[in-house]
Amino acid sequence: MEIFLRHGYERVSLEDLEEICRVPHGTLTTKYNSKQQLAAAAIDWYYSKYSQRMKSAMEQQTDICSAVKAALYAFIEFNYTQGEVSKDHYVRSIIDISRIDTELNQEFERLQHDWELSFIGKFEQYRDQLSDPSKAEGLAQFYLTTIEGLYEVIKSKPPRPMVFGVADLSLDVVKANLKQSPEH
Asked: Which CATH architecture has domain 43-176?
């Protein structure tokens, strides 16, 4: 995936990947019939790694506010780390690459849907901490939208503290919906 991010998805062929990775000619083409097939496998691996990092960050928390903060911070760190392959300009992310091709986009949407269900499930798990438990799914949707917004902000490469500040401000929404305010 990193090679696609560094060199550009459209510009890299399977043969280029073999050369860059220093594997024998034909190694990738025996396993993958096309660059799209390889990219779909890479997106699946990369997105699984990304979603596992966010899930793990959330699972270590005992309250919804801390869980959301951990997920937002993990998302920010992951995206900044991914973007560090180039300091001069924004580099395409797996999201951008997945939108180039219909097959890749379908795979990405499947993975994203699975992550969103997991995220919504976390809010359902903590619904008893909310002053109005019926708002759990709405709050989850709010934070899924917040994550999309953070992604767009990160693409413009602002200083990390500013993005973390935006994430912290968004936590006021969950705090306002708690039975009691957490001690943070």
From this structure: Orthogonal Bundle (1.10)
